[in-house]
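Curious: can you check?
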Amino acid sequence: MAALISRVGKRLRRIIQRPGSVELTRYEALLPAVEKLEPELEKLSDEELTERAGKLRETLTDTAFGDNHLIEVCALGREAARRALGERAFDVQVLGTMGLLSKHVVQMETGEGKTLAGALAAAGYALRGKRAHVVTVNDYLARRDAEWMGPVYALLGVSVGWVEPSHSQAERKEAYAKDVTYGAVAEIGFDVLRDRLVTNVDDLVQPAPEVAIVDEADSVLVDEARVPLVMAGSIDHTDADEEVAKVVRRLRLNLHYETDSEGRNAWLTDAGASVVAKSLGLEVDDLYGDTASDRLPAVNVALHAHALLTRDVDYLVRDGKVQLINAARGRVAELQRWPDGLQAAVEAKEQVTATDRGEILDSITVQALLARYPEVAGMTGTAVAVAEQLREFYELEVAVIPPNTPNVREDLEDRVFASPSQKLRAIEEEIRTVHETGRPILVGTQDVAESEELAEKLAKVDLECVVLNARNDAEEASIIAEAGKKGAVTVSTQMAGRGTDIRLGGTDGATREEVVELGGLHVIGTARYPSSRLDGQLRGRSGRQGDPGSAIFFASLNDELVLSNAPDVPEGITDDEETGEITDNAALRQLNHAQRVAEGVDLEIHRNTWRYTRLIERQRRDLLTHRDKVLREAYAAEKLEKAHPEKFGELKEKLGDDQEKLEQLCREVLLFHVDQLWSDHLAYLTDVRESIHLRALARETPLDEFHRAAIPEFHKIIAEADSRAAKTLEEAELTDDGIDLGDAGVRRANTTWTYLVHDNPFDSDFEQTIKKVRSMIKRK
């Protein structure tokens, strides 16, 4: 019967288009029992409260939380928060905690207290004997939340720490030894990559993964799921082809090159090819022939950098460096870069010093990083929109937690205009009109360039505003905290992950009542985002915890969203002659249609990426199992002794029968070759991936061809590593210390660094998929 009810429930959720909505009845029924424990727990001293939590730790086992356990954990957590923070957790926060302890993604609106709910859930997992990692979107939030929630954890007898870029290896090891560890997703991922290259067990900093609680779960699990985190070792310093960059800089759109409607590809025209070839001292036929095979790829990459990537939209140039902008968050994407060729081409375009190019030692996508954890839960304000993806890629369901106080924000209908300039004039007028009333205004723009252009226009009409974008994202907490002051005008790029509530009246609340009386915070979106979730996140900055507020989006049928995804605007749509405003509902339908197309494309790219990376992750997992055996056991020494018993005996004699030193020396030799072969394998797979789309021309399935190429090569790695290690021992000159590893060629990179690779937007392997999705959706 239970199974039947579950199936019916899932069917109904799909019918009402809430595919991830977990039934909350079970948790709601436990709330009275949680409240009933409050008087009893209030009588306990702090020491007695900690002792009671310790007794719960002793009774919890490595199984799912039962109802009685959920009640006790939440009651203890509520009391700890009341004492430590002066805040009694609302029932909705308790529901959120229960949802997280049941391994769901909980959707809680902005300002509803996700941070505390996440902390209580992390404490609950810790009391069950599981180390919990609270995964945040940036380093600032990791440290802030760990310190903020620290007193709560202390009362529950749970230790807490955090990792950040400045931490030493010892500090990281100490942080990961805590019951609960906070860390940015990239920082935790980089530690995983570093651990994969150690040659001594004592150098490992992370214990085995057990539980991950992901903050801003939709951003981390969906938007950044396919972003690879990379560890590289220095091999050389490679500049882009400066000559090619100078040539491409002179090319003109529609004369020398053209681009597709999606802005994802650029190519030379005949006139452009002639100009490029002549400038490089080549014949046109030579440019496309074997004699200049290295110049054409350089020209193509330089053209992509010149034509398809825009300064202050896709990246900033700051302190003499090219810094990518995270489109989903509107902030600088720290440590993130494009694949080396494109990165160098953009640096040449902007005439800044080229960054070091490295040999990739290992990498991991965010999705694969989170898949390492046996238990995953998450929290965000916008999860339902990606519920199907969370189920498909992570087998997670969404629990929608109702707000503590009903949301009374007024979401106004979008205003649509014929052209961006007419839209901008209307936005200026909207800001002026609302500002005259004294209401605070938050304007969400699409990119850095737009935010600064709007700020300049407002300044010309004596409307002062504060700008928050990737140029000053270090100040975001203080800027956003004051965005609710009376008369404040804040212009910002995308607000996802800002991590700071906007309180009406500002941080001190001095003008709160006056702002409430005026109608609260007014949010203005200057255009629809490619994802409806991002629209929702911007709207959600207003109407916090039952506060009054309003939100409105302005759009144009010539916005990038429409031009890239649904340019075929129906005929007969007319606009006002004076203002350019369009009131025909067909315009709104076109906007919604364009957004659905953009979301569909993004989902297909995610699926396609995962189809390729899934095989790589399986291979990596198998090799790591072998590597761990080499790291922890005497496997390497046994292999080398078997391969060359006489030389091994000489080595053993040199070391004076120091078995531990002998095993470690053999281990370092073999692990060097294992790691080098894996690095070579990754480079090989990159080459295969970059050329695999050509197989489609021969009517072969690219993914099948990728597997055919990748699998046999992988199976050679372990045997080849053993063989190379044996050869190293055979040819090595023995010393009093055993082997001089450097002289034997066992030289690891003298410098390593970590970064994230921004998805190459020009990966031709996706082009047919993208066009197919667009055509399918457009026909509907």
